[in-house]
Design goal:
The chain is an alpha+beta fold and 178 residues long. The chain has six helices and four strands, in the order ααβαβαββαα. The longest helix has 29 residues. It is globular.
């Protein structure tokens, strides 16, 4: 029940720290190429599994503790196979800066074929091309514009959220409303 929310929040943030630590180690590898290929694959898998654990915990915390956050799953592939994936990533980075901790983005490189959870998630959310985004439980196939993504994200917040208020004001101005 809700009495376990403080413990869940603690676990939630501990998972976030673990995820960030693994991301930094992956980044160092790509910058310095200090690990062998096998070590890199293990680190890549560790990061992927940390992301999935964090996403599952975020969903559970949101449901149980009524945490007002929105989650996005980002399915992408390398630029040669997905010319719009990089642009989609820029939009996601913008939204992350706009909403900070109220938006949780989990990105899955679909070329990583050593983890069976990726195809399982793709099948669950009917991901058939890249990029594809899952905002909460709704799948957006192909490139999703900033405005469409803002509309989708803002529709899931239960409380007024600053980034959404600015977005809604922008829509009113575009439509010529007062």
């Amino acid at each position: 029940g809700k009495e376990s929310c403080p413990a869940m929040y603690k676990s939630f943030y501990q998972n976030l720290l673990t995820l960030e630590d693994t991301r930094i180690r992956l980044e160092r590898y790509t910058e310095n190429a200090i690990l062998d290929k096998k070590s890199f694959e293990l680190l890549e898998r560790e990061y992927l599994l940390s992301e999935i654990r964090y996403w599952l915990l975020a969903r559970r915390t949101k449901d149980l503790c009524e945490n007002d956050v929105v989650t996005i799953l980002n399915f992408y592939s390398p630029p040669k196979d997905c010319p719009h994936c990089e642009a989609q990533g820029f939009i996601l980075s913008y939204l992350k800066k706009l909403f900070d901790d109220k938006l949780l983005i989990f990105s899955f490189n679909t070329r990583y074929d050593k983890e069976p959870l990726i195809p399982m998630l793709e099948a669950t959310y009917n991901v058939t091309e890249y990029p594809s985004l899952v905002v909460e439980d709704t799948t957006y196939t192909g490139f999703t514009s900033k405005n469409d993504l803002l509309r989708a994200v803002c529709s899931h917040f239960t409380e007024p959220t600053p980034g959404c208020a600015e977005y809604q004001l922008g829509l009113l101005e575009e439509n010529g409303a007062d």
